[in-house]
Amino acid sequence: MARKGPGYAAPVRRILVALLVLLLLGIFLFWQIDSPRAERMRAAVVDRFVPGFEWVMAPVTRLGRMAAGFQSYARLYEQNQELRRELQKMAAWREAAVQLEQENAKLLAQNNVRIDPALTYISGVVLTDSGSAFRQSVLLNVGARDGILDGWATMDGLGLVGRISGVGEATSRVMLLTDPSSRIPVTILPSGQHALLSGDNTALPALEFIESPENLRPGDRVISSGDGGVFPPGLPVGQVALATDGRLRVRLAADYGRLEFLRVLRSHPPEQLADTGLLIPPPTADFIGPPMPPVVTPAPAAEPADD
Q1: Nearest alpha-carbon partner for 149 in 174, 131, 127
Q2: pLDDT for residue 287 is more than 50
Q3: For the segment 93-123, what is each residue's pLDDT rounded down to a tens digit?
Q4: Cα(126)–Cα(157) distance, rounded to whole angstroms?
Q5: What fold, for 121-265?
Q6: Mean pLDDT of the chain
């Protein structure tokens, strides 16, 4: 078995490490000396050795640039997320602004509708739409506390919508003109003919009991006639249209697809005369023709005298 030689590696390694530490300590102390001569020596060492170590500093420089780029990317990512959040907020604000603009346009359209100046009205907001195959109506947020009465007409910004068919304390129900139970008298212009507009659960209610259908043309205006006191006269209803089945119908002026605000028209019954004695009666008509002979009344017969 061969012998191992004396172990010189460990002592030599310790000596080299000690020398390296002393060398570094000396360089450190030399670099801290505040002396013009030492400064010149340090400058000479830097000029001699540092330019040759650029390849050593290249990885460090590249790593520094990568770190700066990553920090810049992180800042850009945060800014992008912030811009996304701001864009979402702006989209919500834009949607709210569009809705307000639409509501404002509808309210302005209601103000542009020409009705009798003597008619006053109450504006209400449509709460729910309970349209079905057998009943078409909407619910308003005005009721008895606002003075709403059954039978009052309702309009949007374009034309007649229906009438009040049920009143609660804070809400009221509006029966639409398309409801099968709806029947209103109308006048067709320019012919001036009277007819009955009957709802049949379609978007085009039918015209019934027309005096002279041959005098009507598609596009003729249809307004409320006021007959029977159902609605005030002159309210815009729509235009005459010829359906595919050959019947005359009415294309309603009201926008039934977007009923948001409705105007309830106050209509009161005509005043009843309580005292007719104050009226001046008309003069009696004079008889035309030859005068009538005078009427002669016969005298009563004399009674006989008693003996």
Answers
A1: 174
A2: no
A3: 777 777 676 666 655 555 555 555 567 888 8
A4: 13
A5: Thrombin, subunit H (2.40.10)
A6: 77
Name which of 205-214, 228-237, 275-284, 294-303 the model is least confident about: 275-284
Contact 179, 137 (CB under 8 A): yes
Q: Within 13 Å of residue 100, how many CA atoms lie on the same side as its CB?
A: 6
Q: Which residues fall within 8 angstroms of residue 181, CB to CB, at 6 or more apart?
A: 135, 175, 199
First to last CA, the chain: 210
Cα(267)–Cα(230) distance, integer angstroms: 9
- The tens digit of pLDDT for each residue in 148-188 reads 999 899 988 788 999 999 999 999 999 999 999 899 999 99
One-letter amino acid for residue 215 of the chain: N
Cβ-proximal residues to 146 (8 Å cutoff; 6+ apart), any chain: 122, 124
Cis ω on the peptide bond leading into residue 213 (within 30° of 0)? no
3-state DSSP of 77-118: HHHHHHHHHHHHHHHHHHHHHHHHHHHHHHHHHHHHCCCCCC
Helices and strands, number each (H, E), in the chain: 3, 12
The stretch 57-83 carries a mean pLDDT of 80
Q: What is the pTM of this model?
A: 0.52
How far is it, in rounded angstroms, from Cα 202 to Cα 133? 10
User: How many angstroms separate the CA atoms of 205 and 203, rounded?
Assistant: 6
Which regions of 23-171 does DSSP assign to beta strands (E)? 120-129, 137-140, 153-155, 160-167
> How far is C-alpha 159 from the chain's CA centre?
18
